[in-house]
Amino acid sequence: MHGWGEVEITHPHYFVDDSPASAWALASYGLRTSDLKVAAPFGYRGPVRATLLLLARARRLGVVTRSDSSVQLVADRGRLRTSVRRLAMRAAFPRATRVWTVGHENERFWREYVGRHNTRLIPYSTPKLPSGHGLNPAARESDPARLRFLFVGRMDPLKMIDTAIRAFRTLPLDIAQGWRFDIVGDGPHYETLLEQASGDARIAFRGSRTYDNLDQHYSAADVLVLPSQYDNWGLVVNEALAFGCRVLVSERCGAAELVSGHPERGAVLPVGDVSAWAAAMLACRDHLHRVPVAPYDPTADMVADLRSLGGVR
Questions:
Q1: What predicted TM-score, i.e. pTM, was given to this entire model?
Q2: Do 107 and 66 touch, CB atoms closer than 8 A?
Q3: What angle do CA 261, 263, 265 make, to 5 degrees?
Q4: Exposure on the CB side of residue 300, measured as CA atoms within 13 A
Q5: Which residues of the chain fall below pLDDT 50?
Q6: H helices, E strands: number in the chain
C-alpha cells in the first residue's frame, strides 16, 4: 500500500474519497446509526473531515485528532496566515478534543497555538520496519576506516542536503578516504546536488526507493544524516535508529527529541553550520557500536484511549 509493503487492516472498515457525495453519505449514516462513539478526523480540511466534525458536535461524540505541526512552523509563517489558521482550528475542534501529539513541539503547538489541552503523547513511530530484502535489525560494529553515511528523503532545498555534502567533502582524506555517503531519494534539487558532489567518487546517488526496500540501505549504513532547515518530524530518524544507525539531525526537526539527551544515539546540530556537521561526522569514529532501538508500537495506547472515550468495546 503506497510502497509500504504488505499492510493489512484487520478491523471492519471501508474507504471513501474526499468528495461532497461522500460527505453527504457520511452525514446520512451518522445521523441514523447508534454505532458511532468517537470521531477521529485527523485534520479539518475537506468535505468529509468537516462533515465528521459537525456530526461529532451534533451527536456529542468524542473527538480524537492527530497532526505533526509545531510551534516552529507557526513562527515561520506570516501573522495573517497564522491568525486565520488558528481561528479555523479553534472553530473546528471542540475544547474537549483529545489530541494525540507526536512529540513535545507538537504538544506545544496544540496547547499554546490552538488552545487545546487534552493531549496525550503518542509519538510517531515505525512499528513495521522495511523488510523487502529480509534484512532485520541486528547489533553490529562499524569500521572507523569505512564509515558509511546515509540520507533518505526528498531532494528538496528545505532538506539542506547540501550542508551534509559540503561537510563530508571537507573531511580530511587521511581519515575519510574510505568513507562513503549514499543519498537515497529524488526531487527538484537533484541536479544541483549532483553538481555539488561532482568529482567525489565517495558520494553516490542511489535514486528513489519504496519504503519496503529501504532495509538494504539502513542495514549497510553507519550514520543517518537529516540536516533539514525544517521538518515537522522526520520518520527516517525512527527508521535509522531501529536499524542501529547513529543519527545526526538538525535542531529544526521534530524527531531530534529522539536523539537529544542520548549521546549514544547521535547528535542534534545547528541548521546550515558546515563546520559543526563536519565535526559531528568525524566524531562518529568514537561511536562504533550499532545497537538497534526497538520501535514503539502505539496500537495498545491508542486502543486504551479510544476505550476511555467509548469508541472500542
A1: 0.90
A2: no
A3: 100
A4: 3
A5: 1-5, 313
A6: 12, 12
